What does this fold into?
Amino acid sequence: MGGPGGPGFPLAFGQSKAKFQMEPNTGVTFDDVAGVDEAKQDFMEVVEFLKKPERFTAVGARIPKGVLLVGPPGTGKTLLAKAIAGEAGVPFFSISGSEFVEMFVGVGASRVRDLFKKAKENAPCIVFVDEIDAVGRQRGTGIGGGNDEREQTLNQLLTEMDGFEGNTGIIVIAATNRADILDSALLRPGRFDRQVTVDVPDIRGRTEILKVHASNKKFDSDVSLEVIAMRTPGFSGADLANLLNEAAILAGRRGKTAISSKEIDDSIDRIVAGMEGTVMTQAKVL
It folds into this structure.
């Protein structure tokens, strides 16, 4: 048996595995985030809160404690949160909601305390919780120890946010694609005061995103980013980045020095219809 907190004791779970990451400077700005102009506009205020809080407190304004980013996967929610920290020049703490919950009750709550303790030491800062629905879903909707653990973690998160007295300089940004299942206590004023929707981009947004991801790639003169944007309705920012990367890989594989329309066409087909390949016949299996 190990000593307390050692291999033989589950006590080490609470302290040792706080998997949050801290970036003193993300190096990401709003210029790196394209296709979400409305969301960026909402977050300009948050940047101002972090940079010049006295401007708002002087007129009696209460700085929002939390912002909820709602949108499908791949739409740039994490990148947007990093850009806010980068624009404001403050540290960025990030963790996934699923990393809070372990099979031992009390571990998640301990990790929440640890995360906010570090955040307070480095204020002003941004705390980003991805997939908050993993820990923030409505309480009382399940049975068993795992549910007790999740509820304890959620209660601790609410307690920490309620404990921000005055202007602490900590703004919590959470991301989810299932806002409908979140506990109502998370969404009341004083916790996640604001909801910002980050949806899949429209044609103008797709063009802007393609320009960002095309800046370090070489294209033939017959390639038009506007035409690609027209052909990719429903694509998220991550899909568009993947599309151009696939095209670059195909161009390299074919020995070309620039990406042509052929590579773009093949990449769109590959992403929309799945990987191109030959059907394995019975003869090949045998």
The two ends are 53 Å apart (CA to CA).
